[in-house]
Amino acid sequence: MEEYHRHCDEVGFNADEAHNIVKECIDGVLGGEDYNQNNINQWTASIVEQSLAHLVKLGKAYKYIVTCAVVQKSAYGFHTASSCFWDTTSDGTCTVRWENRTMNCIANVFAIAIVL
């Protein structure tokens, strides 16, 4: 319990905390599934909506953007990039990479501090 409180009082974006939240959401949606093109829209929507809901529940003064891409595993690989212009002392990002034998998933969280 003490570890949790330390993270809550922390100034700045806690990338580890966000990573764990998003990974749990991905595990919950994609765990045990095989790639199916017909389910991708529902899966990605569930991942971003659940992740966003859990991040907001942390009660921190942040605006969040969550993205998610799921692709069928292939020999071609899967590459993404992002760039941000922001305050590195308060804003932050984390990337979660997840895979199973049939698909790859990459989710990104961007957290922008709300200045009161």
From TrEMBL:
GO BP of this protein: cell division; microtubule-based movement
Gene Ontology terms for molecular function: dynein intermediate chain binding
Localization: Chromosome, Centromere, Kinetochore; Cytoplasm, Cytoskeleton; Nucleus
A Pfam family hit: Tctex-1
Keywords assigned: Cell cycle, Cell division, Centromere, Chromosome, Cytoplasm, Cytoskeleton, Dynein, Kinetochore, Microtubule, Mitosis, Motor protein, Nitration, Nucleus, Transport
One GO cellular component term noted in the UniProt record for this chain: microtubule
Keyword Glycosyltransferase: no
Lipid metabolism is among the record's keywords: no
InterPro entries the record matches: Tctex-1-like, Tctex-1-like_sf
Alphabetical list of PANTHER family matching this protein: DYNEIN LIGHT CHAIN TCTEX-TYPE 3, T-COMPLEX-ASSOCIATED-TESTIS-EXPRESSED 1/ DYNEIN LIGHT CHAIN
Subunit structure: Homodimer. The cytoplasmic dynein 1 complex consists of two catalytic heavy chains (HCs) and a number of non-catalytic subunits presented by intermediate chains (ICs), light intermediate chains (LICs) and light chains (LCs); the composition seems to vary in respect to the IC, LIC and LC composition. The heavy chain homodimer serves as a scaffold for the probable homodimeric assembly of the respective non-catalytic subunits. The ICs and LICs bind directly to the HC dimer and the LCs assemble on the IC dimer. DYNLT1 and DYNLT3 compete for association with dynein IC (DYNC1I1 or DYNC1I2).
Function per UniProt: Acts as one of several non-catalytic accessory components of the cytoplasmic dynein 1 complex that are thought to be involved in linking dynein to cargos and to adapter proteins that regulate dynein function. Cytoplasmic dynein 1 acts as a motor for the intracellular retrograde motility of vesicles and organelles along microtubules. Probably binds BUB3 as part of transport cargo. Required for the efficient progression through mitosis.
Protein family per UniProt: Belongs to the dynein light chain Tctex-type family.
Protein name: Dynein light chain Tctex-type 3
Organism: Orycteropus afer afer
